[in-house]
Amino acid sequence: MKIAHIDKEVREKLLELFADEQISEEWITTPKVIFNGLSPLEVLASEQGKTKVLDAIQRITYGDFS
């Protein structure tokens, strides 16, 4: 999976956070507790998915790993 195929804003935020495409791809395809066991990529397919994924990225950016 290439992150080039995901939402532009999400992709940019991931690359800002991780500064590495491979790590960004790994993060977006790995299931997360915060998303009830879904991957961020799966969450993006939902109606409010982009907002939820961007919120998670922002929380990580500011050190909130809960």
Give a brief outline of the structure:
This protein is mainly alpha-helical and 66 residues long. The chain contains 4 helices and no strands. This is Antitoxin Xre/MbcA/ParS-like toxin-binding domain-containing protein.
Task: Describe this protein's structure.
Residues 14-63 form the Antitoxin Xre/MbcA/ParS-like toxin-binding domain. It comes from Aliivibrio sifiae. The chain is globular and about 25 Å long. It starts with 7 loop residues before the first helix and ends in a 5-residue tail after the last helix. It is 58% helix and 0% strand. It has one domain (3-61). The model has no long low-confidence stretch (mean pLDDT 93). The chain has helices spanning 8-18, 21-29, 40-44, 49-61. The protein is built from 4 helices and no strands. It is mostly helical and 66 residues long.
List the main descriptive attributes of the protein structure presented here.
mainly alpha, 66 residues, 58% helix, 4 helices, globular
H/E series:
HHHH
User: How much β-strand is present in the residues?
Assistant: under 5%
Q: How would the global form be characterised?
A: globular
Total separate domains: 1
Pfam families: Xre_MbcA_ParS_C
Protein name: Antitoxin Xre/MbcA/ParS-like toxin-binding domain-containing protein
InterPro entries: Xre/MbcA/ParS-like_toxin-bd (IPR024467)
Domain Antitoxin Xre/MbcA/ParS-like toxin-binding: 14-63
Question: Secondary structure elements and their pairing?
Answer:
Elements: H1 8-18, H2 21-29, H3 40-44, H4 49-61
Helix pairs in contact: 1-4
